[in-house]
Each structure stands twice: as structure tokens, then as C-alpha cells.
Amino acid sequence: MASANISASDDQFLCSICLSVFTEPVSTPCGHNYCKSCIVDFWTLSDVHQCPLCKENCRTAPELQVNTEFRDMLELFKRTRVAGEDGGSCASPEEVPCDLCHGVKRKALKSCLVCLASYCHIHMKPHHTVQALKWHELINPVVTLEDRVCQKHNKVKEFFCRRDGSCVCVVCLRDDHVTHTAVSLEEEMKERKTQLTHMKRSVKHTLNRKCILAKKIENAMMLGRQEVDRTKAETAEAFAALAAMIETKKVKLIELLEEKQKAAEQQAEALLRQLQLEIFENDRTRTKLEELSKTEDDFRLLQDLPSVPSSSNTKQCFTARVQPLLQVETVRSALAKLEEMLNQQMEDITREVNQADQEKTLQGLMPDDELGKIQKEYAINVTLDPNTAHPSLILSEDRKQVRDGGAKRNVPDNPARFDNLHFVLGNEGFSTGKFYYEVTLKGQTGWEVGVARESISKKGVNLCLSPENGCWTLGSYWGRCQANTNPPVILSLSQQPQKVGVFVDYEGGLVSFYNVDTRDLIYAFTGCVFAGSVPFLRNLLAFSVYSAKTRIYPLFRPSCEEGSDSAPLQITPV
């Protein structure tokens, strides 16, 4: 609806003072719109603050506010008018504007490296029609055109110096970079884009691996907390049961002592009552005897002389029952043994907890990553095949090390021997499954490792290290590490790897290279076709008679440094 109204009439977007399209439209209290500068100048030249259209007066100069809604409609009108005039569109803040447009800037379609300006499709026409401008180099629009021109020679930078890592012009290339390796910007840009793709893939792979590891750590922490809480609860329950058992045994022992004491007291009370009766009888007998001893009636002495009570064994019975029921030392000795046994058991439990914590710490330090699993499951023993080694290569007796002697030696000629390129193959070939090996590169200034088909050309120099020719290798040249694709991919590494791990998944078509020290993925060839092409007849026979697979072999090239003290390339055990 707004678009229809805008296209119907343009007068509403014209200021009544300057008769031009509004600039910073503001509204007066009466509701009319003016350019902010127009109404301010109008009131400055007048004695009263009056609306130019309705003549409404204001006692003081009103505070003018930008009409945001009207401003947005005005911006839409400007864009619509530009599009209606020439079919172009206004440049948004994120787009490159045309340098020749006045007022509303159209979106630039191209930037000229000669004119150092960006043009919309209207101002771009002279570069297509004027003969003198047709040779100008046009690129996609960019903001910083000055960076594309050499400040020293005022020429367009067309080349990239790989040694200095900078863009240079043709004069710089001729004067200051004549001995440097340089390529065109297009070629370098193509390689950088390819490198960017692989870097993004590597970073994504590393990010996913680290996210998975972080999730594993979080889950382990949660499970560990749950396990500790469960163990704490069960331990507290076990100690509470032990304490309850000890308390029960203590109570039972005390109750037994009290029962025994009560029984002894009851027996003593019975003895005491019997003794009191005997005392009473003895006292009465003593009184009678005193009376008889004072009488002078002899006949009474003969008749009333009482019998003396027999002696009882009360003393002996009472003495036998005053012995202690339990020796305290017996209790102390039993409790000391129980304490010693408990301490020993607790020491064993504490030692077990500490050992479990150390094992957990060591497990945390172990490589719980993809490389660690590969090393554990797919590591193999690789040795070098002397029948394939270039004549200048010197192998160790155990066939685990190789160095370049710098000069060819007299060795038997062999169809499998490299006669020009300084390579050597592994002795073991593979046509199925997965395998992994590691190579130490310490002291190597230039090297290559990887895998190659058994059918790789070993004679002459026409050997391109590319997957198309049956080679999947990683190499270091002039201090730069690269994956030997077609074209090669230069790898931006923070440091040159000292130990490289090579992992191959035959069925999965994968060859991966790892920095063993940092445990990072350096590069991965995916979609590898290890089976080489065979003649039609052989292929037909293979299809009809048997199924054959191409074997692939580990490939090595040490740095070429003369002298017996040069560091060898070593196949190290995983």
C-alpha cells in the first residue's frame, strides 16, 4: 500500500520551502513537514516562529524532532525513484557504493583497478563502449582499491611472492623478487580457496571432536558426581550400621553386667535377711545366758539352759560372690584389637580410593581422542623394502630408518626400484582393512610420506604426486607443508610436525595425516580410489573369474643432505 501511494505522487516528498526532496524531515507542532535546515533558517530570518503553510504562531521556538516514520517512507521513495530511473538499486550500508553517483549512491557492480573507482551499471557503460577504457581490468566491487595498487611503482599488484607472502606488481617482481617463487594472484587465490576449504573441514572436524570430548567430560563429571553421592550414602549407611552394632553390643554388655549385679544383690539381700535372723536368735540366746548366769537357782540352770545355734556358712557364700564379674582390661584389649582391625581396613579402603583416583587421572591424561583409538586398534609394523629404494638412499639394518647419501651407489637393478625420484616403499602392502603407522621427521628439512599404488611409475621423472596418479602424500618443501593434491594445498601450520601418523581406511577411501605430538589432524584425503585402471580384457577376466584389489604401499622420501651425520627418516613404533 505504501509503495502504491509513493508512486502515485511525488509532491508529498518535496519540502515547501526549498521545493526539493526532504533532507532530515522534521515536523512542526501543527503537523507540517520541512527540512530541518530550511525551517531553522526560516525562523532565524523572521521575528516570529510561524508555520510557513498554515501561519500558526508559536510563542517560543519549538523543539524539532525528526519524523522517523516519514523519514523511512522518504528513504523508500528515494530507492524506488532510483530504481525507476535506471533499473539500479541504492547501495545498502553493507554494499560498495558507486563513486560517481551524487546524492543517492547506487550499488557498484564493478571496481576498476586502473581508475581506482567503483561504478554502478550506469557509470559502468563507458568501460564497455569507449575503446580506450575497454582494456581496464575490472573486478568485483571492493572498498579498498588503493590496497590493490603498488605504492612504490603505481602499478596494479598482479603477482604473489610466496617467499615473502606479499602481493607485488610486475616491477617489484623484476627488481626485488626476481629470485623468489611467485605466482599470479588468480593462481594463489585458487590455492588459498582450496586451502580454506580444507582448513574449514579440518577445523570443523577438530571442533566436532572437541565438542564430543567436552560432552564426554560433562557426562563423566555428572556420572562421577552421582557415583560419589551413591558411595557416600552407602558409606554413611555402613558406618551408621557399624556404630549401631557397636552401640548395641555395648548396651547388651552393660545390661548383662547390670543383670549379673542385680542377681548378686538379690542373693546378697537374701543372705543379709538370713544373717539378720541369726543375729536376732543369737542375741536372744545371749540374753538368756546372761540371765541364767546371774540366777542362783541351780535347778533353773538345769532346766532352762538354751542350746547354742549352730554356725552358718554365710561368710563363705558372701565372700565367693564379691569377685568382679568382668575384668576391664579384657574389654579394653578387645576394643583395642577391634580399633586396630578397623584402622587397617580403613587404610586399605583409603589406598584403594587413592589408586582409583590415580588411575582416573592417568586415564584423563591418555589420548581419549580419535588418534588414540586409531593408534590402539590399527597400528602395524612397517619396514622398508630395499628393492624399491633409490640408489642414493641408505637403509638401516632393521629397515626402520632411511637417509639420503647424496650420491648414487652401485646397487642391483630392479624393475621395482625408483631410478630418478628419491623414494622407497614399505615392504608390506595392503588391499583391505585399515592400518596406521608413524614416522619421526626430526632433523628433516624436506620430506614426503604417505601411500601409493603398487602400479606407481618408478622409472623416469614423469611422476606427479597426486591422487590421480595413485599417490596420497604429505610433504614439506622450503619450510612449507603441503598436501600433494592437484593442485597442491599449502597448509598453514603453527609449527612443522616432528612426528607424523598416517592412517588409511581402504574400504572407506580415506588417507589421514596426524601431528602425533599435538594430536591434531593435519590433512585428510577423502573419496580415495585405490584401485587403478586396468585394460578392458583384464578387467573382464577379473570380473568373470576372480575379484582382485590393487595393493597400496607406504611411501617415504627423506631430505637430501650429504654426509653420514644427516638425520634419518625413522619409522617409529606406536
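the 2nd protein, sequnce then structure:
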Amino acid sequence: MKDSEWQKEQARVDYTIQQINKRENELIHLIEKVRQEASHIRTNFWEDVRVNLNELDDVSETNASIRQQEHFLRERERNYQHSEKQIRAFKKMKSSPYFARIDVAEKDEKTESLYIGISSFLDEEDHFLVYDWRAPIASIYYDGGMGEAVYNTPEGKLKVDVKLKRQYTIKKAVIQRMFDTTEAIGDEMLQEVLGEGSSAQMKSIVSTIQREQNQIIRDTTSDLLFVQGAAGSGKTSAILQRIAYLLYRFREGLDETQMMIFSPNRLFNHYIANVLPELGEKNMVQTTFHDFASVRLKRMEMKSLFEQFEAREKKQYKNILALKESLVFYQLVKRYAAELGDLIQFKNIKFRGKIIISKQEIQAIYASFPAYFKRIEKLQETSKKLRERLYVIMNQEAKKDWIKDEIELLSEENYHALVPTHLEFSSFEEEEDYLAKKLVRLKFKNTHEQIKQHDYFHLKQQYVQFIKKVPQLLDLKDFNIRLEEWEAERKQLMVRLNANQIALEDVVFFLELEDQLTGKETMRAMKFVFIDEIQDYTPAQIAYLRSIFPSSHFTLLGDLNQAIFKTKQTERSLIDEILHLFDPSRARQIELKKSYRSTYEITQFTRDIIQDENQIIPFERHGELPQIVEAKSYLEMMDKIVKQAKAMQEKYGMVAIIGKNKESCEHCYLSLYQQMEVRLIHLDNQKLIDGIMIIPSYLAKGLEFDGVIVLDASDENYHLEEERTLLYTICSRAMHQLFIISEGKPSRLLPIQE
């Protein structure tokens, strides 16, 4: 490109940053003014409100005055928050105000140059110096080529003629790189960004969004958006950019509290934590399925991801697991609840270790209501009767000796906590009666809450009864399960429930049974739900989440080739199984086949592992060939790992030693921690660092590292056909270098190297 053109573009960068600096200074003064105004309103709130409660009209006038002051305060706070958000964007833009330019012309109009960045910026005359990447016209940059292009506007579709498409790399206000392209996005730019190495936080590369990613980002109509993406195809980055786009697109009626993302683990939550702030938005609600379900389970302990991963080795367990993953079983819970009638399991209500209301009494109360009452109405009426019964019991308990003993043992501090300072008693008996009633009310607080929450309903026993009845509701032979195997599972379930524990595969059915019997608490305010690593979810789990978020648009993304908790063959039908949960006419599938994370050599290698060339298209960024090294002993394997890890760290920075499970990772850590600086990542320590780390396979999902060392990829460790997806997942974490080592013969699942 000519020097004169370069100088002209640099001058434009300089002018834009000059205007940003000027506007930033104005905003800083405005923020201080707004802050002072808000402080004044708060301080003088009641002085500025005309209070008169003598006449009805005066009361209305007073209310109007209060509302007016509240409106002023809210308006100032909104202005303050908006200005703060703008300043945050300006700080980023001062280094790189934009990353692209498109020259477009509408019919019979002259050509206009539009510059695209992470946020819009207008000059003093309200001319756009920079367009936000989420603005409708910016879609031309991502979607179209040269020539005629169409983009959506609030008034409808608009045609333009694209004359030029230019990309920049601008750092510290200086153009480092600039080139014109006829493609939607030049791979040349993407190659440079991805070649910079990994970091502890995920990159948000809005300048390198591909055409398919842009379709994902800007979809506003689908109730179900299902994204199948190869490892390193940018699907997670696209989803986070989609969140930022939706917040921008619906900024008048949507905020980050109405969006929830289900991540594979807390480690991944930490990994993506800085992405949305980089895009100029606050973080939405982040959770994992484990954490979300645990809140609803209350005092129950849920089986961990590690335990789920280990349990899949048992053959008879796999058949039972297949049944418990299905929508058939989910519908079976509903059928069981519908046919249950009044055969609900209740439990005794106890106080101080004694039964005060027996389960038989509760059953009699529940059964006393008319047959036309719905189940939830019966429970509500039962709770009402139980509260009345509890009130009588509390009055009886207040007269007993144990409560008198409690009163005598009251400290002065506890006494004053029960008795307001202004309260005086005419006699000792009056004081004792008051204290007895107050104390009893406190002592019965948990019991009262138990009744309020329908906690007298024996959910554990009811679920065991359901499991016991399953063989009568369906034919276990259809799922290759013998009756004695199912009975053994029921007994194991009882042991777990008695210990206040529940297996992951039982969770949604346990919660759904409770919802069916006591009423479902939905979250209708949530407008968008995103589920990452969808291949690790069961159809039943998705059905349950759909029932909890009935008003939400769902975005599901994952890689079917990374289904490490189930076989690839069963996972293929996931979209077909769940499609009927949504309106099929408002469901959309998008496939991302091109992998940008790894070098060409690593991608080819991982593609050979899963033996599916059509699913992944490698990116033309070349590097070292993956190495497969055989060690004769565990000690030799550790020595080679130390040497390789140190070399990788020196060359790149972020290195992961990935083991199959927790046990192998812990053993490796104990062998290495005295020889080099290394960190073990586990369920209780889920925070990424720069340097060398040891991490189990199921926590590495969704992450990327400069260099990956596959720990003990021996044939003894990886020989089952269903472990092919696991090995693929581990190897595909590597961006630049992949080193595979085995104690003994390497796995038969690895490609044969020439």
C-alpha cells in the first residue's frame, strides 16, 4: 500500500483519538456534576418533597412530589452509569479506535467510508467516526464480499454497493498492519492474532469474526439456536460476542441479569470472566449445571463431575445411565406423578426430637380435601391446617417447664434482644408469658419454615417408590437392563439418599418429581439461556432446564466429537431428541467446521483420531508435528515430561499436562512438584495460571493452551473405542505444540505416524 495512503489513514487514527480524548474529558466533568446533583437530591430529598397529609388531594400531591424526586434521582444515576460505560470504552479505543473500514454507496449516493470498532463514537456534529461492531451496517463487514450487499435496518432491508474492505492492526494509536481484502474476513489477520499465544483469559477477537460466527452472533429470532463447532472453531467466542450483541440490540429492554450461561465448570467461568467487559458489557449470570441444581437440592450433596467420569467404566451402570439420560425416563416421572393420586409419602414433623405431628395425621389432613382439588391446592390447604395445628402446639409448649428453664438461662444480651426497651411489664407473670411466647416462636421458626416449604412431603421416599415402580411402567429389557440390576440400583440409591447424597443422573428426575407434586418455580424473567459443552448434557437435563426457563431463547453449543461422558454414536441424535421441546419452525442449526486454535499439523492429527475428515477443516497456520514418545517406565516418563514442559514454557508460556483422571494427575504432581514449578488444577482449585499446570481431562474442556503434554497415552490407558472422543478432546487443547507420551505401548487410538 502506498505511503501516502498509509499516512492518510494514520492521520485519521490520530484525529479520532484526539476527539475521543476531548469527549472523555467532557464526560469526566459531566460525571462529577451528575454525582454532585445525585448527592444533593439524596441529602435534600425530604426538604424538596411537599408533605401534606391533611386532605385526600394533598396526599396525592405529596405522592406525586415523592415520585418526581425519585425520577430525578433515577435519571441522574442512569446518566452516571451510561457515562461511566462510555469512558470504559474510550480507554480501550484510545489504543485501537477501530479495526476495519468499509466503503459503501447507496443507490445514486456518493461513496461513504465507515470505520468499525468495539464501540460507536460520534464527533461534536453527531457524525459517526466509529461504528459499533454490533450495529446493523457492520454486518456487511462480516457477511458480504465486494459488490452488492444487504443488511437489516429498523425500517427493513437496505441494499448497498461495497467498494472497499480494509482491515487494520492498531496498537498504542499506531497502525501496525493494514491491508485490503475481498473476503468476508481475511485469514491473514486471524493468523496473526492467533499466533500471539494463549493467555489466562480468553481473547475477544471481534475483528476476526467469520461469516458463520456472525450468523450466530446476530440471530434474534430463533427459540433454539444449536451450534455444532469443531474444537477451536471459535464457537464459545462467538457466543460471548452474541451476548454482547444482544445486550446492544435490545439495550432498552434487556440487561445482563436476564441472561444466563451454563459453563462446563468453574474453571471455564474464570477463563471467560474478562471477555464481556472487553466488549463493553457487564458479565451475565454464570453458573454450572452442578451449581444450579445444587441450589435447588438444598441440603442434598450432588455427585461430582469426577465421580461421574469414573463411574462410566461399569458396564451394567452404562445401561442404567442410558435410560436415566433419556426423555423416556423424564416423561415417566410425569406419568408416575399424574397417576399417583393421594398416595403421597409424608414424614413426621418433629420438635426437640419428638414427633409433634405424625405422618399419618398429615396423610389424613391431605386426604380430607375434595377430590376435585388439584394436588398443589391440597398441599397449600394441608400447610394451612398444619400451621393452625402448630399454633396450638406452640401455645402448649410455652407453658411447659423446659421453656421456663430457657427463660432463667437468658443472658442480659439475649433478654434485650427479645424485649424492646420501651416495653414495661405490670407483673412477673406477664413478663414470663411474653418471654415464653417469644422464645417458643423462635424455637419453632425452622418447623414453621418446614411447613411453609412443604418439607413434610417425603421426597426421598417418594423418589425411591418411583424407582421401585419403574419396572411396571416400562420394559427394562428394551434397555438391556435385568430386573436384579435395577433392584441393586434401587438399593444403592437408598443408601445414597439416606446419606443425603444423590447421583448426577438422578438429579433432574428427583427435582422434576418435586416440581410435579409441589409446584414448579419457573424463571420467566430470564430471556436468554446459553449452554456450553452441550454434548455433556442429557436430553432429560435439557428438558428440565427448558421447563425452568419457559420464556427463554436457548443457545446450545458444543462439539459432538468431544462427548467424553458418553459415546459419540449416542450423542449424534441429541438435536433430534430435544427438537420437539421447542417450536421446530423457530429452531436453527449452524455448523462451524474450520478450526483456528491449533496449527495445521495438530488439527490434521486430531482429525485422524476421530476418523472424520468431513467434520473439521484445518487452518493454514503451520508448526511442529505432534510427537508420540514411548517411555519404558513411569520414572522415565516423568523425566521426559519435565524436560518437555520446561522447553515448552520457555518457548510459549502456558503449558498443560493433561491426564485422564484425577488420580493420574495427582500421582504426576507428586512426582514433579519438587523438580519444577507446577500447579495441580482440581475441583477445589479451579483457576488458570500462566506457566505449567496439571489438569484432568474433564476440567480441560473448552480451554486452550500454547503447549499440551498428554500424560500416559498408553494402550492400557486408552484402548476402548468410546475413549476416542476423550483422546481427541485432550489433544485438541493444544495451540502450537502437542507432545504425547506413554508408559509402554502408545494407544491404538492414536494415528500411525510414518
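The radius of gyration is 32 Å. The first strand starts at residue 100 and ends at 105.
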